[in-house]
Amino acid sequence: MKNMAEKYTSKYVFPKTANLVLPLLVLLVIGAGTYVPVVVGLGASPENTDVGYQPVQPVPYSHALHVGQLGLDCTYCHTTVDKAAFAAIPPTQTCMNCHTNVRTESPKLAPVRESWQSGKPIEWVKVHDLPDYSYFNHSAHVNKGVSCVSCHGRVDHMGEEGVYQAKNLSMGWCLDCHRNPEQALRPKDQVTNLGWTPDQLKLAEPGTESFQILQEMNLAPNEEITQSKLGEFLKKKYGIRDHHFMTSCSTCHR
Ligand code: HEC
Ligand code: HEC
Ligand code: HEC
Ligand code: HEC
Ligand code: HEC
Fold this sequence. Notes:
single chain; 41% helix; 0% strand; binds heme C
């Protein structure tokens, strides 16, 4: 991640040397055979130091306006989120698709026009940043029906002050979901629809994946669609792997 991340002004959660020390620590911990209590302790420790982190960005870009009001899909800009580990930040070209014609004089867009003229990318400041010794992959989540909202909150409500970190991204937080993934699964076609709730499945349009799932679930008339019912169904349909895989150290530390 850090290669791409270095294009931003990176914030380091740990000093750089920690990137060497920690994998060793992990090996030692496993070797000692005492990992269970250690990890329970780690998982339980409140290390939510980054919740609310909201760096000042070079342009007052608003998700609330572009997503919430204009209705752009996340993948219009974050084009790799369902294909790769890293969720691409859009190049200036993407902004200029519209801003060559829209608000061409706006002072708020001056850095975008400068970047367009000079060819130098806008230096967005990275908000979410895991330490290098942990492995994360966007497509592995998005293609199994885990929504952006589970990990980033209501980005579609975040305004000109920029994106802030809504969840603590600690190991304990990752494991909370990995132990009970059914609480977070939804149809893949609703992953970028942040306000979606399970009862909306009944409104699915024929021909969509949601509609197919609704039919396969074979509910009784008037039967309520709860998250646990839907989640258990999708866990099988999407072939979510077992508890052992989801909680193994090597899944996230490789
Ligand atoms: C028109 C382009 C555009 C669209 C559409 C868009 N984003 Fe973004 N997004 C950006 C830009 C530019 C940034 C960098 C500035 C910032 O962090 O505020 C960003 C940053 C982010 C970040 C913070 C990344 C980091 O540095 O950690 C998250 C999370 C995010 N977007 C999620 C979403 C989600 C979820 C959606 C759909 C609901 C979405 N975005 C739709 C352009 C877009
Ligand atoms: C699909 C078209 C579209 C794309 C793509 C787009 N914008 Fe916009 N943007 C708009 C519209 C429409 C407005 C609102 C104009 C208005 O209020 O009349 C706007 C407004 C803005 C404003 C506020 C301008 C002001 O004067 O208040 C900023 C800043 C901005 N966009 C930044 C960006 C950035 C940065 C990107 C690329 C990451 C981007 N936009 C991509 C359509 C777009
Ligand atoms: C399971 C949790 C999870 C889900 C689901 C998720 N993200 Fe992320 N996202 C993260 C984490 C963790 C990071 C920080 C990754 C790192 O530093 O290695 C991140 C980082 C980002 C970034 C910054 C670039 C990067 O990859 O580091 C963007 C942009 C982003 N996410 C957008 C999205 C969008 C859009 C969606 C939904 C389509 C989404 N994310 C779904 C957890 C998630
Ligand atoms: C809201 C639920 C949720 C959260 C939060 C979450 N995950 Fe996951 N994760 C999943 C699901 C579901 C899968 C898919 C498992 C499968 O494919 O069998 C998964 C799979 C993975 C995989 C396996 C990728 C592969 O296919 O090899 C890794 C690695 C991973 N997650 C890391 C993380 C990390 C690191 C965090 C915390 C920063 C995190 N996850 C947070 C639900 C979640
Ligand atoms: C679901 C993903 C996931 C699994 C499974 C996982 N880890 Fe982690 N681990 C993380 C993440 C993410 C961090 C970084 C947390 C942070 O930045 O605060 C981390 C941090 C750590 C740290 C650094 C200390 C700390 O509290 O930040 C150690 C040591 C560690 N993990 C050991 C383990 C061991 C041993 C196992 C197996 C029993 C394990 N991890 C399983 C995701 C995971």
